[in-house]
Design goal:
The protein is built from 9 helices and 9 strands. α1 (3-29) packs across α2 and α4 (63-81) packs across α7 (114-135). Strands 1, 2, 3, 4, 5, 6, 7, 8 and 9 form a 9-stranded antiparallel beta sheet that branches. The chain is globular and about 55 Å long. The longest helix has 27 residues, at 3-29. It has helices at residues 3-29, 37-44, 48-59, 63-81, 87-93, 99-110, 114-135, 185-196, 264-275, and strands at residues 162-167, 170-178, 208-212, 225-231, 243-247, 250-259, 281-283, 289-293, 303-313.
Length: 314
Amino acid sequence: MSEPQDRITSASRREYERRINAVHDHIAGHLDGRLDLEALAAVACFSPFHFHRIFTALTGETLGACVKRLRLEAAANALTHNPDTSVLGVALACGFSSHAVFSREFRQRFGEPPSAWRRRTRAELRNHGQADRKDGQAAPPAAAHPGFVFPEPEPRSPTMDVTIKDLPRQRVAYLRATGRYGTMEQALWERMCRWAGPRGLLRPGEPTVSICHDSPEVTPPDRCRYDACVPLPAGFEPDGEVNTSVLPGGRYAVLRVDGTVADFGPAWTDIFARWLPGSGWQCDERPCLELCYGEPDPATGRLVFEVCIPVKPL
């Protein structure tokens, strides 16, 4: 294939990727809204006549299956982490028309009714956190979902340093990978650094941004989405393989850590399970962010990073 044709093919694939990513993000942000073929085709700027086939070919699942999966996964998380919301309230907020429809589809997906899932997963969450602290291992971080709070009081780590900050709205270049967390991040960041480094975008003192969109406890591991993001200066128009997006900014609770990669999990556990319940704040629908300042020290493996969760008054 000739070099010009290579460039045309690559640009086309990037445009398709950008549009499919926009559809996934729109579904996640409008679970209780109109998510039919016509509406989502409009988000993707594709003809409804072709969009369903395009979506299935590129993602490996039908559009309807994707909408149902994301609604059920959001509902499963909400049942665990929003104990004051009724099962019907969770169902309606996630786009299900009735308790009966929700219960039937939830049982088909997770193998038990919503009320049983709530009792079991909340007990497991408490027991898992206690067991992890006994054996020195960290519980998996909570996902970024609207209104997730942990009401059981937990002792805070003595070194926890959480501050409330207003982060600026920020335009970023990003690459997205879909798959198992812990297996794809390094390769994705190597791709991003190969693109961003020669363009002068990896600047000292300015953090890179990671976004984990899904919770592997409810999302099939091979469907979890991870974004590697680099802030863009004003007026910079990216080229090459990246997509662009705008991080919404706003008020975040920020936990700053000077540690190693092994401290990432405990930091997420601390801010969600030990800081948030007694903080007077709750999460909203914006994404959680992980900011990293520079590369790990070659000798010690230490680096400075910040766990940022979007908050609003409780």
